[in-house]
Amino acid sequence: MAPLPPMGKSRVLQWLAGRKGDALWFGSPHPCACVLAQDGVWRLRELATDPQVLRRASDDALGSGGSFMPEHAAALQTPTGRVHLEAPTRQALAALLEDFAWPRHW
Questions:
Q1: What is the pLDDT of residues 68-83, one digit of tens each?
Q2: How far apart are CA 45 and CA 9, in angstroms?
Q3: E strands of the chain, at which residues?
Q4: Which residues have C-beta within 8 Å of that of residue 73, sequence separation ≥ 6?
């Protein structure tokens, strides 16, 4: 996966308004945050990687003569990191996002 440009708050708000899908991952240069429906609510949260899973995948890839690059690590991320915002609906999350201090790399 090639590095991605930041998505920006306005494009995430457009995605929420478009009612397509239940998860959107974003961040630059690789996804590091997401908006998703999870456990019956909508969340803006960070993506995280279990260090043991990361080490095992790296060791397996390099041990077999392959490579392990940032793209491989990014593919192991899950929406288990810090929750920044939570709301009962897409629309309610969008309203909270309006005032959220959006990181530049998202």
A1: 988 888 888 999 999 9
A2: 14
A3: 23-26, 33-38, 41-46, 83-87
A4: 30, 49, 54, 57, 58
Predicted TM-score (pTM) of this structure: 0.84
How far, CA to CA in Å, does 65 sit from each of 6, 58, 60, 78, 104?
33, 11, 9, 26, 37
Tokens of 88: 């009962």
Burial class of residue 26 in the structure, from the number of CB atoms within 10 Å of its CB (0-12 exposed, 13-18 middle, 19+ buried): buried
Task: Collapse the DSSP code of 94 into the 3-class scheme (helix H, G, I; strand E, B; otherwise coil) and give the result.
Answer: helix
Q: Which residues pair with 46 in a beta bridge?
A: 33
